[in-house]
Amino acid sequence: MDYRALDVERVHADTLLDGLRRPLHDLRISVTDRCNLRCTYCMPREIFDENHAYLPRSELLTFEEIERLAGLFIRLGVRKIRLTGGEPLLRHGIEQLIEKLARRQTAEGVPVEIALTTNGVLLARKAQSLKDAGLSRVTVSLDGLSNATFQRMSGSEVAVATVLEGIAAARTAGLGPVKVNMVVKRGANEHEILPMAEHFRHSGIVLRFIEFMDVGTSNGWRMDDVVPAREILDRIAVCHPLEQLDPHYSGEVAERWRYADGAGEVGVIASVTHAFCNECSRVRLATDGRLYTCLFASEGLDLRAPLRQGEGDRVLTNLIADCWGRRSDQYSQLRHAATGEAASQVKKVEMSYIGG
Ligand code: SF4
Known about the structure:
It contains twelve helices and twelve strands. The protein is an alpha/beta fold.
């Protein structure tokens, strides 16, 4: 379809499919490349050390620019916006951005869920103001219950209690259903799979286990360090039998499981052993305005330049629609086919820059 002649007002969700006929549904917006933790699988401290240069403020999209782009994505079919980072709660005035996005979705006249993924360190003091600003719900990263494991995984001295207080505050503020994500890495925290599962049973919080992924080029990923989703589920089911649930919607990232005794739900995000590219409806906007069509992409489309050159909505929408229309990403599905020197040489974008 030639979008250049299209009237942007009339573009409908079901007309915009990528090269593999996947619709555009989820927009992930990284609002900062800064973080107050140094998780080993994302921003290992030995690489992202005290000399690490973050993007200068002038290169970050402003809230007005993010809101404008979000409006265009909503017209193109986006129905879920997730704010990420780095650590999004470090972006000063994040509540104002959420207010703008909430107003924008109302103006566009379609229901759009606004969610946020955080490491929870600042959540206890911000949960209510995020909710008041219009945030729908949060997902909190927590890779262990013991301080020893959590601090090793997060490269920090933050106490687990701080993150648990954030989770409790999010629930009190009504930012739910709250989800908790745990990245599992062999030799680092697989011994905490069952304690984490048991901690969140009967809590109403959905705990999702994420297979360690080869995101970016900094985390020293090896297949040997991956604990497959099947093993994670088996470790829990030994004590607490599980039953599989259907996905909420096509393209949902996590496989859903419920405790047979009714104690709640867990999930697994199995990008390595059970890839889900066939239904991937996600696009990522980096904090400096580059658009990435895959978490494992190397190149992104610069939207900041045309924005700051004063291009109109039609040009920007056509750029986005063309980019999505030409998309054929399925990195995880092809991961194992891409072996040898060539594969390891691919310079993939860092997760701390485009968000998970
Ligand atoms: S690897 Fe890329 S295409 Fe596949 S599910 Fe992840 S983001 Fe989507």
